[in-house]
Amino acid sequence: MSLTLNKIVCITGASRGIGRACALEFVKQGAIGLILHYLGDDETTQEIQTLQKEVEERGVQAVIIPGDIAKLETSKKIVETGVKEFGRIDVLVSNVGICPFSDFLTMPLETWERTRQVNLDGTFYIVQEVAVQMTSQIPQGGTLIAISSISGLLGGAQQCHYGPTKAAITSLMQNCAVALGKHGIRANAILPGTIATDINKEDLKDNAKRDYMINRTLLGRLGNPEDVAGPVVFLASDLARYITGASIIVDGGLFVNFQ
């Protein structure tokens, strides 16, 4: 069953993981055009080209834009290219995030700065650029969705840099909901739990830690990118037309499992 979205969707960090799963789910649910951002190194270039081919084989046009999301010019290029190709942007999924696990006491300043620049600064840049576009297009409005994390609500010994950026992203979307509602723009955050993606691939090679995280969930398994893509597409759809400023936890019950 398709939601018949009929929307132009922009996704950052679309080459793999949650971003890729979102792109494919949007196609499945009736998106009419995709603006797909990727880092631009050899690996992500090959991945995004494969995704673009798969999307277009399903009858949906896709434009791809490389660049470091931590740089403002990348967000400007994403919006400029997307609008040139499709004329408007209806949905943004701000998905790029990094988490180079590091002990707090020995964390290099560069690790803190890079994590903040990619996760928080990059999110701010793309959200602002897309929001400006959404206020200028006719009809005005759209949907902003940021991928945050339950790490913004909980602590982690090796995430003293990552968690604060995700808490800030959740807050950013709440504040954007207040600022942009008058323009018909909804802003919401998705807070995934432990999702098996490249961001934690090395960390989850520790079988004891992997088993611990699985046992913490109420559903008895780690999440996969498709588990996040569903809620993202729902928030982008008209079924969620009265939802803004919300923070939706997608974690298999990990957050509530106190005992």
TrEMBL record:
GO terms for biological process: fatty acid biosynthetic process; rhamnose catabolic process. Coiled coil: none annotated. This is Uncharacterized protein. Keywords: NADP, Oxidoreductase, Rhamnose metabolism. InterPro entries: NAD(P)-bd_dom_sf, SDR_fam. Belongs to the short-chain dehydrogenases/reductases (SDR) family. GO terms for molecular function: oxidoreductase activity, acting on the CH-OH group of donors, NAD or NADP as acceptor; quinone binding.
